[in-house]
Design a protein that fits this description.
- The protein contains 26 helices and 18 strands.
- It has about 700 residues and is an alpha+beta fold.
- The strands form five sheets. Strands 1, 2, 3, 7, 8, 9 and 10 form a seven-stranded mixed beta sheet that branches. A four-stranded antiparallel beta sheet has the order 13-15-16-14, sandwiched between helices.
- The radius of gyration is 35 Å and the shape is flat.
């Protein structure tokens, strides 16, 4: 026999950003408690609204499963004394397991006999476990922020106002912070009323009757359907951003989509400003035409039914008008600020107490960008654009618009720079130097944009590393991992002819002169290379297997473009070439013997005594130069093709030549030959890391 279990925690409104994680946590903890308690069930389903967290468990067994467990005790020689009587150790083991010595059995384990006791435990009634179990689940939950209320020491995300705990039709005897569980839930705050939940299976429909859709997926589907219908009726494109939709889902219990309008004169403000104001302040979805141009309408979701939508729309329009008026004022005032004056204000904004002001950072960015431009051999006109972009890339941080909407940094810089007479390239590069801002974001398209972007990011990383701020575990308050990944992606996207070490060097030289470094430059180089190695490894892992990643990383990853090319070529060979394992085995055999070679590595062809070693030497010499040319050209496929050309000669060499010859000179010469070949194979990959 089984019954359903319902547990609902009724709360004051929970912040929308906390709800999904809280819902999933309640589901997970309930599932684990049932498993640990040996209570069979058909699965746990979670529900949530701004005022409740709930789980519904189907087919919960009325009794725990019985358990029979065999426990190992002392070895036989310890359990029995010389007279064959049970020792104190054996008797103590019997007491601890609740059995008599007569119930012992003997079993051999690894050649030694031990006594075993079979402990049987009968399952208890599920109903007797629920109160303590549910209380433990609630008290174990964690949140980004907690509250205490009344005189209670208990902490939770928001004060608990009611609870429903039903096992079948029976109420669980549970009390938390003076709130007793019952079978009465609460409907929509304004449209609904209290409702009796007669049994768990009626939960969803009982709340629906009180204007509450407890199922998150159902609410999402309803919102999207209403938005789609409105868009079709009006011939609009309604921009539904995932994170805003997520927030809206947890702000409403009965979602109703409606639209409003705003004064078209506001469209003179940059589109991104209007969209940001609508999304961030009002939780509105912007409306676009077929070309992606903003229209003077907005879409929002009401927590209620479709009654009096015109009145609701007008109220939202009034609030939005005030918001957009503020944005318009900020926008107009910002344009009165000269770029030179804005740059002067950056001197008064602390970037980090050990790294100086934003003004100091801008100067470092300029020096690093200049060094990078030189390493990339950019033309003089581009260098001029890089220098100007670096000089003014942060000026919009002191504008009122960016103060109000920090996410518009760069966007406003581009707009204001263009209006101030800067070239289109410089203006665009100001925006682009923040890219990529997140995984999947666009890459900077201009040379000035990507050079300054790298300079900005590497300055942050090296600056933090130099004063001891290095990400550990999940802690990364300055988003250094994301910025390192951004540098790697930019280098790969534009196939830049620059190594990671050169990028580090450009920043280290600037920071060494600042005298803030708590670590030596040599130590920082090692730490930075390892740190970026993890970013490169993650990038490669998106496309190739882990062993291929390890193999190419083993040959170095300073040249990001080259290591990606090598990884793709090696992955293709592993998957498509039937004879490639033979090739790899020959390389690995070379590697094993090359480890015994002396350090000087000099090869004397006059000491060759066998045709097979002459052939190997000549084959290697014919491939060596074009192979390294292919590596330098980052042509992984061609480099691996040339390297694979050694296979037959290597196999013939090992078939016919005794490497460890008695003559020391001959032996040393053969090992030197293998060491030279091994140097070439190791420049492509550490083939020994491949797993077959």
């Amino acid at each position: 026999m089984s019954k359903d279990l319902l547990f609902e925690i009724g709360l004051e409104e929970i912040p929308a950003r906390f709800i999904r994680a809280a819902m999933e946590q309640l589901q997970d903890r309930t599932t684990k408690w049932l498993e640990a308690s040996r209570i069979a069930n058909s699965g746990v389903t979670a529900y949530a609204t701004p005022r409740r967290l709930a789980v519904l468990v189907k087919d919960v067994a009325e009794k725990q499963e019985d358990v029979s467990e065999e426990v190992k005790g002392p070895a036989r020689k310890i359990a029995l004394d010389a007279a064959g009587e049970w020792s104190k150790a054996a008797l103590g083991f019997a007491r601890s397991q609740g059995v008599t010595p007569e119930q012992f059995t003997f079993k051999e384990l690894a050649g030694v006999e031990y006594i075993y006791a079979t402990r049987n435990s009968a399952g208890v009634e599920t109903a007797s476990l629920l109160a303590e179990g549910l209380h433990g689940i609630v008290s174990s939950m964690t949140f980004p922020k907690n509250m205490r209320w009344g005189t209670h020491d208990f902490k939770f995300v928001r004060p608990i106002r009611w609870m429903v705990a039903l096992y079948g039709m029976d109420v669980v005897d549970l009390e938390i912070t003076g709130v007793k569980a019952g079978n009465i839930s609460r409907g929509h705050r304004f449209l609904g009323a209290e409702t009796l939940i007669a049994q768990p299976s009626e939960y969803i429909e009982s709340l629906r009757a009180q204007h509450v859709l407890a199922d998150v997926k159902e609410r999402e589907q309803l919102v999207l359907e209403q938005i789609k219908k409105l868009a079709e009726e009006k011939d609009w494109t309604i921009a539904v951003k995932e994170d805003l939709l997520e927030e809206v889902l947890f702000l409403v219990e009965t979602p109703t989509v409606l639209f409003g309008t705003f004064d078209p004169s506001f469209l003179n403000i940059p589109q991104d400003v209007l969209i940001t104001s609508m999304r961030e302040h009002q939780r509105y979805f912007p409306v676009l035409d077929a070309a992606g141009k903003l229209l003077p309408y907005f879409v929002t979701v009401r927590n209620g039914n479709a009654v009096s939508l015109d009145v609701i729309a007008k109220g939202n329009e009034k609030v939005l008008r005030a918001r957009l008026s503020d944005a318009k004022f900020f926008y107009q005032e910002d344009q009165k600020l000269k770029i030179s004056d804005a740059l002067a204000k950056l001197e008064n904004i602390v970037y980090h107490e050990e790294l100086g002001s934003i003004g100091d950072k801008v100067r470092r960015i300029g020096k690093i960008a200049d060094a990078l431009a030189a390493k990339l051999a950019l033309p003089e006109t581009t260098v001029s654009e890089v220098n100007r972009t670096a000089e003014i890339c942060k000026f919009d941080l002191v504008t009122q618009m960016v103060y109000e909407f920090p996410e518009l940094q760069g966007t406003m810089g581009e707009d204001y720079a263009r209006k101030a007479g800067e070239t289109d390239t410089v203006a665009k590069a100001i925006f682009e130097h923040y890219q990529p801002r997140f995984a999947g974001d666009d890459m900077p398209s201009t040379e000035a944009g990507y050079v300054v972007s790298i300079a900005d990011k590497i300055d942050t990383i090296v600056g933090c590393f130099s004063i001891g701020i290095i990400p550990t575990g999940s802690q990364d308050p300055y988003a250094l991992r994301r910025q390192a990944a951004g540098i790697v992606q930019i280098v790969l996207e534009h196939k830049l002819s620059i190594g990671l070490q050169e990028i580090f060097e450009a920043a280290l030289e600037v920071h060494e002169n600042s005298r803030n470094m708590k670590h030596s430059a040599g130590e920082l180089r090692i730490n930075l290379y390892e740190f970026f190695g993890l970013r490169v490894k993650r990038l490669l892992s998106d496309n190739v297997s882990y062993d291929v990643v390890d193999a190419v990383i083993g040959a170095g990853y300073d040249d990001v473009v080259a290591v990606v090319a090598r990884s793709r070529a090696l992955s293709d060979a592993v998957q498509t070439r039937e004879d490639f394992k033979i090739t790899v085995d020959s390389f690995n055999r070379v590697s094993n013997l090359a480890a015994k070679a002396s350090n000087d590595g000099a090869i004397d062809p006059s000491l060759f005594t066998d045709e097979a070693e002459v052939k190997l030497y000549e084959t290697w010499q014919s491939l060596h130069a074009p192979y390294h040319e292919a590596l330098s050209a980052r042509n992984g496929d061609e480099a691996l093709r040339l390297l694979s050309g050694l296979q037959d000669a290597v196999t013939g060499f090992f078939d016919k030549v005794m490497v460890m010859a008695e003559d020391e000179k001959v032996r040393t010469n053969r090992l030197a030959l293998l060491a030279g070949i091994n140097g070439d194979t190791k420049a492509f990959a550490d083939f020994g890391k491949l797993v077959w």
